Amino acid sequence: MEITFRYLFRYRDLLVPTINAHKEILDAQNSCWWGWWKRPSEETHISIWQAIEAQLNKSGQVDIGLFDSGSGEVRSATISQVIRPKIDEYDDCAPVRVPEEELPLVPEYYRSSSGSRGWMRLIRIGEPIDGFFGEVSFAASPALPQYTVTQLARLEGKVVLDADELRGMDTTLWEVRGSTKGDSNDRFLTPSVSVSEAVSDIPVATKGEWVLHISDLHYADDSSAGQHVWSIGAQPGRNLVDALTSAIEESETRIGAVIVTGDLTFRGTRDEFKTASDELFRLTYSLELSLEHLIVVPGNHDILWTEQQDYDPNLPVTLAPNQATAPYRAFFRQLFRYDANPDLSMARRFVFPGGRIIDVVALNSSSLKQGANYLAGMGRTQESAFTDASHALRWRDSGQSL
User: Fold this and answer.
1) Is the distance from CB of 277 to CB of 334 less than 8 angstroms?
2) Which ranges in 234-303 belong to alpha helices (H)?
3) CB-based contact 124:78 (threshold 8 Å)
């Protein structure tokens, strides 16, 4: 199969349908800006951006590929301009923005975000390409963390077998070409070193030295707006994430981890959890963090012990635990892409700059316990949850007391 592009960019519909949002602007304005959101552990790919810029200076436009890691679809697109990444003092990409007068060419859902590390002006977005996988190969070895140059060298000239092969790689940018006779058809397995469970002792390295702790976000739908809901007050148009990222940027503080301790929602509805998930994803990306750097536990507002629509802390318990926690578990799965553990706790081992190791155990305090003459609800943590987390972190093995 003949392809017209060498560079393949990865994206995912996490907040809105990405292609539709950009095509709407492109169709109306003849172009739109597409932001590149680099993965936290990913390199800057400056040489690729420079190569694209050089091609644009020579020919005026360049074809690229867009890979949807959710659906697996690949499309071609054409760009006419780039704003390439800039290297900051940490030898990483600093946020860059499009000119103020061209902000209407950016989809509204990330127009004010500081997450983009590079920009491409699109003048065309094609339809999904049939038969892409199995017909293209890697033109160069992708830069993947935790792999040596020797290990990655065998990827060059290897056929890209399917979407799963790309999904397993910790990068958002590849160089590809049409496959030729003699290209390898071996599957390249990239076992993830990332955390893929709620309680884990896998060390998570941080670039920042500070921990951001937030609680009681109380995202609410329209029917509950104004009732015990977080608000920025007299600053219309700004929300929690905008306020936090603005304050952090002004203080020049570098955040290494985020801990959210409950009450993400007001009534635990699907729409409220969807907002919470979107905003937490946007927060971590704005802070240049991965979801490995995020810890979340529920609060009493996030567990639905009753079917009553209006929130009332005095209502009797009418739902069994598996029903009561189902909305939160669905939220957790949607955000982290793996299941919450049985007691809804989380634990991480963070390695901060300078080698400081901090273990964080966040326990769910909204469980029930039934006794002979009582039913205790909010405010109870299960001792077994702490014991399980401490064992997973191997505190006893390391000689630490429990």
Assistant:
1) yes
2) 240-251, 270-286
3) yes
The CA distance from 33 to 117, in Å, is: 13
* 199-205 and 346-352 strand pairing: parallel
Classify 351 as helix, strand or coil. Answer: strand
Q: At 278, phi and psi to the nearest 5?
A: -60, -45
Q: Are 303 and 243 in contact, with CB atoms under 8 Å apart?
A: no
- Cβ-contact 240, 230 below 8 angstroms: yes
Model confidence, pTM: 0.60
Residue for token pair 């990222």: 245
Q: 29 φ, ψ to 5°?
A: -115, 0
CA contacts within 13 A on the Cβ side of 18:
20
pLDDT in single tens digits along all 402 residues of the chain: 678 999 999 998 876 889 999 999 999 999 999 999 887 777 889 999 999 999 999 999 999 999 998 899 999 999 999 999 887 655 567 788 899 999 999 999 888 776 788 999 999 999 999 999 999 999 999 888 767 777 788 899 999 999 988 987 888 999 999 999 999 998 776 544 567 788 988 888 888 899 999 998 888 876 655 665 555 444 445 577 878 888 888 887 889 999 999 888 887 888 888 888 888 888 887 787 888 899 999 988 888 765 555 555 555 554 446 677 888 999 998 888 788 998 899 999 999 988 889 999 999 887 655 444 444 444 567 777 888 888 888 886 555 444
| Burial zone of 326 (CB within 10 Å; 0-12 exposed, 13-18 middle, 19+ buried) | middle
